[in-house]
Design a protein that fits this description.
526 residues; alpha+beta; Dipeptide-binding Protein, domain 3; eleven-stranded mixed beta sheet; four-stranded antiparallel beta sheet; 19 strands; globular
Length: 526
């Protein structure tokens, strides 16, 4: 994921209509077009079990699994879903109590009660999948279930972000009868309590049908959705133009977005909705590699890379340069990488290396994934290689793998330098800092800055008013820039392309940048 996402603002238009989100608190029985909405994406799930995925699999999870809390379109804080209500019961933010809605059931008929909630979250930590979301629950100590409708979460330390975690697909609820407590479910099926049930899943396609027993915040505007997974975004765009799919999300290249925004595509019945995004791309330096472990090498790369040229050549206005791991539009955003390293300067980079006794070109291998972030990724790394090679300070070799293999590779510490994307888990600046630090973190390379781990994050998490932690977030960004263990590259905009007869695309992205399929509907049915 990350995995899959946070203080994200979708658009001013969305904000102005966000109050409408509350009208779907109960299951929706309104009529809807029976013809499935078909959505194309390049973000194929890595697994169907939420205990084992912290990545783009959340796209599917949000639509078939339920969480205690959720983020309706336009919201910046979690609101009730399976829970009737949740609150901290102490001033220290260490005890969090949720009361479930009465009569909730999973699609197999099992009761969704407090014991099911405890089972769902305990198994994440018990299984401890290296690709799963267990690190998001690092502050959780134990879960108590005083009665069938009450769940009490006891935290090890104050953590005002814990409700945000419960609102993410990391906290997807599953029935104990079909999901083992100590291992991942492997029968290729799912059982949840979300807006849809997964009626069919095979390589390349997920078929979703209406879950008639669902009770929650989602106001479903369709009865059936088919998600079609594409390895090649060009084929996905062609399918949209040929009316084989109704909408696309994730993986469009800049050239494809420009093409879909053109008058010719409009004449073919295609519309494009642009949203403010907090999706980011960055490089990770592995301290196990003898070259990447050197601060001077990392800092010289930060001084050499021209983000403006990268964005202009590869992303053509669909992204903008990023100088912090906390993107623009998120609380506390600053530009420490610009402030510290300035404009691209090869002479300054050469001095940084020579001052560290490095006089020969530094040889490094950069790795990227071929099928997670879209076809532009290869062009992006080609441009990075060009810039660094032309400086004569570096010799870059490019390597790539499909996501499944790539994920195993970086988690096992095999790559000296590698590219990752980050989509917010929840809309808070903590989610652009905490996942990247600690002995075990989201990028698989231990990074333990004492000031962030022991002071800045604990202080910020004591503040229920998240704006009160701005000072700590700003200082954490400074530490990131000084260490340059992570190098932010760009921040993207979000695009949904759809056929002109499909409405709801402007509401379909939640604050975690996850597609809420229930918002899409055919105009002819209304």
């Amino acid at each position: 994921m990350f995995n899959r996402t946070r203080c994200l603002q979708i658009t001013a238009a969305l904000a102005s209509i966000s109050l409408l989100a509350g009208c779907g608190l109960l299951s929706d029985d309104s009529g809807a077009d029976k013809k499935p909405i078909v959505v194309g994406t390049t973000s194929k799930p890595s697994t169907l079990d939420p205990a084992a995925a912290w990545d783009g699999s959340w796209e599917l999870y949000r639509n078939i699994y339920q969480t205690l809390l959720a983020f309706p379109t336009g919201s910046t804080k979690p609101e009730p879903d399976a829970a009737q209500g949740c609150e901290f019961t102490d001033s220290a933010n260490e005890s969090y109590r949720c009361t479930l809605r009465k009569g909730l059931k999973f699609s197999n008929g099992e009761a969704l009660d407090s014991k099911a909630v405890k089972h769902s979250l305990d198994r994440i930590r018990t299984i401890a999948s290296k690709n799963g979301p267990k690190d998001l629950f690092g502050s959780l100590d134990k879960i108590e279930t005083p009665d069938a409708l009450t769940v009490v979460f006891h935290l090890k330390t104050p953590d005002a972000t814990f409700p945000f975690v419960l609102g993410s697909p990391a906290a997807s609820l599953v029935p104990p009868g079909e999901y083992p407590a100590d291992k991942v479910r492997k029968d290729g099926k799912t059982t949840g309590s979300g807006p849809y049930v997964l009626t069919s899943y095979k390589d390349g396609e997920a078929v979703l049908g209406r879950n008639d027993s669902y009770v929650g915040f989602a106001n479903r505007r369709n009865d059936n959705v088919t998600i079609r997974y594409f390895a090649d975004s060009k084929k996905m765009v062609a399918a949209l133009k040929d009316k084989e799919i109704d909408a696309t999300y994730r993986g469009l290249s800049a050239a494809e977005i420009k093409d879909l925004q053109s008058p010719a595509s409009h004449d073919q019945g295609v519309q494009v909705v642009e949203n403010v995004g907090s999706e980011i791309r960055y490089l990770v330096f592995n301290p196990k590699d003898p070259q990447a472990a050197k601060p001077a090498v990392r800092q010289a790369i930060a001084q050499t890379i021209d983000r403006g040229a990268l964005v202009s050549k590869v992303y053509q206005g669909t992204a903008e340069p990023l100088y912090s791991m906390v993107p623009k539009g998120v609380l506390g955003h600053k530009t420490p990488f610009y402030d510290m390293y300035g404009q691209p300067n090869v002479d300054a980079a050469r001095k940084t290396l020579r001052d560290a006794g490095i006089t020969q070109p530094v040889e490094l291998t950069f790795w990227y994934t071929t099928d997670r972030y879209g076809s532009s990724t290869a062009d992006e790394f080609t441009e990075l290689k060009r810039q660094l090679d032309e400086s004569l300070l570096f010799k870059i070799t490019l390597r790539s793998k499909p996501w499944i293999e790539f994920q195993d590779g970086y988690k096992n510490g095999e790559f000296p330098v590698f590219g990752r994307g980050w989509f917010p888990d929840f809309p808070d600046p903590d989610n652009f800092i905490a996942p990247f630090v600690g002995k075990e973190n989201a990028v698989g390379t231990p990074y333990e800055p004492a000031d962030i781990l022991n002071d800045l994050l604990p202080k910020s998490r004591r503040e229920s008013d998240r704006s009160a932690g701005v000072r700590e977030f700003e200082q954490a960004q400074q530490t990131f820039a000084k260490d340059a263990r992570l190098l932010p590259l760009w921040q993207g905009k979000l695009y949904v392309a759809a056929r002109e007869d499909v409405a709801g695309a402007e509401r379909a992205l939640d604050p975690q940048t996850v597609m809420q399929m229930w918002e899409l509907y055919r105009k002819t049915s209304w």
